[in-house]
Fold this protein.
Amino acid sequence: MLFFSYFKDLVGREVTVELKNDLAIRGTLHSVDQYLNIKLENTRVVDQEKFPHMLSVRNCFIRGSVVRYVQLPPEGVDIELLHDATRREARGG
Amino acid sequence: MLGGPGLESVVDQIISVITNDGRNIVGVLKGFDQATNIILDESHERVYSTKEGVQQLVLGLYIIRGDNISVIGELDEELDAGLDLSELRAHPLKPVIH
């Protein structure tokens, strides 16, 4: 639940999602769901020459199970808030 | 809290699916469910290679199981029309490793 809430607060920010097949997609975070599936808008593949497979795609849905990393802008990270939320989650879980 | 993937907005539109084994399948999304299983109509596979242009293999009406899906992209037909697939050279996508 923690990361679901965290990503909901990041909607509208530019993120780069790196997948388990090494593909990296940059875009604006449109929405996220309970499985941490991610919908991105205005997408661009990071290495377009190596991965031209999505040249005609500007909006995409990425299955949560296939995400390796979600790269966030540093301004989007409130460390204190995350620490507090993690402590609460650890106590409850 | 939404139960399944928010794919209603792309139903009846052309989508580009990247599967876990690295394939790229293009077709019209007809339906989906909570597990992201999808029904794809008029589908074809785009096979990328470094030696020759993109090959398109006609598949027809397909059901793709959700646990084999990596990415579902909304295909922009204008952008796609501007591509010369016969000139495109690329390595095939790698399979997903969990």
